[in-house]
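User: Assemble these into one structure.

Assistant: Restating your components, then the assembled model:
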Amino acid sequence: MASHTSKAFLSLGRIHVSGVGLQKSLSRATYATGVSTHTGGGNKGHSDRGGQRKGITKRNRRTQGEPRTVKMLVDQDWTSVYPTATPFRPSAVPLPVRMGYPTKGGVPPGKKGNLELIKIPNFLHLTPVAIRKHCEAMKSFCTEWPSALGTDAKCDEHFPVKVESTDYMSAAPSLRNPSARVVHLRVKLSSLNLDDHARKKMLNLVRDRYCKDTDILSITAERCPLRKQNHEYAMYLLTVLYHESWKTEAWEAEKTVADMEDYSWEESPSQKNILSMLVRMKVAGEGEEEEVREQLLGRKEVQEYKNSVTRLRNEGESESTILQYKEAVKKVLNL
Amino acid sequence: MSSFLFQIMALQRLSFRLRQTATHVRSLHTSGCGQQQAAEAVESEPEPLSVFRTRENDPACHSEQHMGQYYTLPSTDIRTLFPHGLPGRYQQQLKTFNEACMMVRKPSLEVISYLKKTDFSKPSLRYLFYGLNGTGKTMSLCHSVHYCYTQGWLVLHVPDAHIWMKNCKELMPSSYNDTRFDQPLQASDWLRNFRITNEPFLSKIKTKQRYVWTKRESTEEGSLLGQLVDQGISRVKSSSDVVGAVLKELRLQSGQPESDFRMAVAVDGVNGLWGRSTIKKKDKSPVESDELTLVYNLKKLLTKDWTGGAIITTLSQTGSLYTSRFDYLPQELLGERGFDSMDPFLPVSVPNYSEKEFESCYLYWMDRQWLQHPQSRTEEGKKEIIFLCNRNPSMMDRICASL
């Protein structure tokens, strides 16, 4: 505030010298100084004066000084130029940056007076040097990471359930931020004790919350107003899922082939087809139906065929799976 | 467009002049071949005619050494065997060049070798050609069918199963079974073409059952198959049921010791049989594939219940409904039901042209004076064509059509 008032006096002094239309120019001067900030040394904030005063301002305009970038050394301390997050100042950033839509037959406009550069967020205050300084300053407040938890694998082993929540800080009338109540819970299913049926049931219960590539189940809780409540709710969900997936209900016996996650060759149309075909071809010889079936199933070619069909169905199609299927069919049918 | 027509007319005139003197043709070939050999530096093989042609016109004698070479199909065969089987563009090419030349390629050679080894007492095996769009699946099917024809088999060729699943102008409830629907136009078309292809068999095979069409019309047991087919063509209303009867008779009789014919069932676009259809019933609900008489009867023929022949099929994405343009693998196009029905089958991949096959095709078109553009005859032009079409046969055909 002090700097602002001094500037106001300065401008007042300047207008006094002109001596014409004092009152009007006074009010105008105060408005103008109220707005001006750290423009590098010059009269830039005052340039828009309106047609009336143009002649006078032109006569008494102070020449613009050199921008600060000219005086900057290559090995200067950048952290003092941009100590905090501030909008882009073209005279303080010594880079020949261009931004915006190119003019006709030309290039994007330069940095001087470029609103596009001022609008966007810049990270000039977060250079590696600045971050190193921040870290040095924070080191005294930190404790060491325990050496027993050196690798990620060890962290997963001892702490399989990971809870994540975010704290927010801002200069505003209120300290509270409603986004701070969100809690993310992540756990790897391999660290839970689940058998085959329990795992399949768990996957059916959670659906999208499970990621197949990383084997991580993520539960996000944000329905309660406080973080503590959300955390407890997420832990409750995990417990319930685990116990429910171990139970087998009566209606689970009605699971159809379409519900199955994996393809199983037994009792599939493919098995029936190949068996009936081989029986017709009279490969196994005469005998009881059951015996013949067992004999056929035990054959190496039939096993190979079974593997190839299972692979084709489970893994999806590709040139290699189809070729494998083709080879298996050729062997089974003796081509 | 007009320039293209002019070119076709010019070519027709040119080919006519070529046909007149065989010696003239021979000299043109050899001189052309000599020029090309010098220009393209193609490895010459001991073929008297030219590098890309073979004199061996019998598919039974085609082998590995003929791979990549063109053999000529006699025009009589074309008229009887393929009244409806060949791809549209190829038919136009036939008319332009006045000769039917097909390339001998690995997929069809493979299937022909299996066909040679078939044991006719065992259930018929299923072969499936699959591949990207335009790689030559239908042509491979036609090559195998030509082999079957030259061996004297009965050929049951369904040119495109998709046309039975869409664009049906007349849909009638079936007289035989209330839940099913008839397609009289498609059925009578197919019967007509079937008759053209299999004339000799129609007077030999006898029906084993009595069929009653209306109160007054019926086909007695022991009557010739030809009569049955004629009945279907003349009485369009019952043609779908006639098709069903024909298929049933052939299925029962094939492979039996007393019948002396072998049957080759060739279906193009077989994935259409298990796909969705765009035909709608009167209440705007879509028709299932099993509710169409033609499709139902054809599916019975595709099972392994019968012996004494082979089933050769192709997948086709181009005419198929409700499938993505990039699907080409069997399971994607057949669907679960289709795969289960076709299983176990032998999938045969049909890839794009290899280097040698591309050379052969290029030389064939140069020889036929199809490539008129001066730059297409240079090395640079050839590289450009390779780049543009990625050696895909149909793309190459389309690109070179405008050159």
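The CA atoms of residues 284 and 296 of chain A lie 7 Å apart.
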